[in-house]
Amino acid sequence: MKQIFLCAINNILSGTCKEDCKFCTQSVRYHADIERYSYKAIDQIVSEAKEARANGALGYCLVTAGKGLDDKKTDFVARTAQAIKAEVEGLNLIACNGTANKEQLRYLKEHGIDSYNHNLETSERYYPQICQTHRWDERYETCENVRSVGLALCSGGIFGMGETAQDRDDLLKAIASLSPESTPLNFYHPNPALPIKTRNIEQDEALEIIQKAHRLLGKERLLMVAGGRELLFSSDERKMFEAGANAIVIGNYLTTSGEAPDKDRQMLEALGYEVAVSCGTD
Ligand code: SF4
Question: Fewest CB within 10 angstroms: 102, 131, 157, 216, which?
Fold first, then answer.
């Protein structure tokens, strides 16, 4: 029986970013109507991590808005990771804190982080159309830093932001060149405040992307349908699992709501899938 890996996200510092990524409601430039706050209390994060574990999550991602790590953020994520590891068993802890150098990543690893998420977002060619405040090659370099310090790498992208079919193929190839242990595939969720107004992807194209990613990355890797799942696959989740996805995000996304975890577990059961209880895939 195929097992599905569940991952949950905690936005531990929200909506305070000065970068200009045109798909991101957390940029202060676009004044999207989202909740914005500085560092969450560590006790609260630990309690939310316990809840996610009780809901079946094996992956737990600590996300901070902003271009990348600085000393304060690195220290906060490290202390949070230590606190979670001390109280919650069986979670694979993922940090997602933007651009990072090797020293910062080593520090996070020493304090309990298992994996680092940094998405390439789109192809190198299309990237300047969606972000002008930093470069695609900086993103690629952070992913290489993750590999070189021995953290597991989680890297994927967002589809449906106006890119071409060639851009999609190029992004998947670039991701595969990094051999990530896990890859989140996000499908763009339009927001009226953002410069990218519409989503240029339909379910059949999304399925093609999942199939291609599955072939390129290998079936032993985690291939996760993340943001936008509810927009493209609501009541049609079987198709994405049959195309090769073996992981989903449960609970809420960074700034948008997801399904209730109970509903997702019922959906998996109804489709005949099991919730994975360890980090390997079948
Ligand atoms: S750097 Fe990250 S948080 Fe900031 S706007 Fe870009 S995607 Fe959003």
Answer: 102
pLDDT category of residue 252 using cuts at 50, 70 and 90: confident
pLDDT at 281 over 50: no
Query: Would 280 be classed as within a structural domain?
Result: no
Is the whole model's pTM more than 0.90, yes or no?
Answer: yes
Domains held by the chain: number: 1
The residues near 76 (Cβ < 8 Å, ≥ 6 apart) are: 12, 13, 39, 64
CATH value at residue 250 = 3.20.20.70
How far is ligand 1, taken at its centre, from the CA of residue 14, in Å? Answer: 10
Residue 155 inside a domain? The answer is yes
**Residue 148 domain boundaries:** 3-275
Contact 91, 49 (CB under 8 A): yes
Q: Cα(38)–Cα(245) distance, rounded to whole angstroms?
A: 34
Compute, in angstroms, the gap from residue 6 CA to the centroid of ligand 1: 24
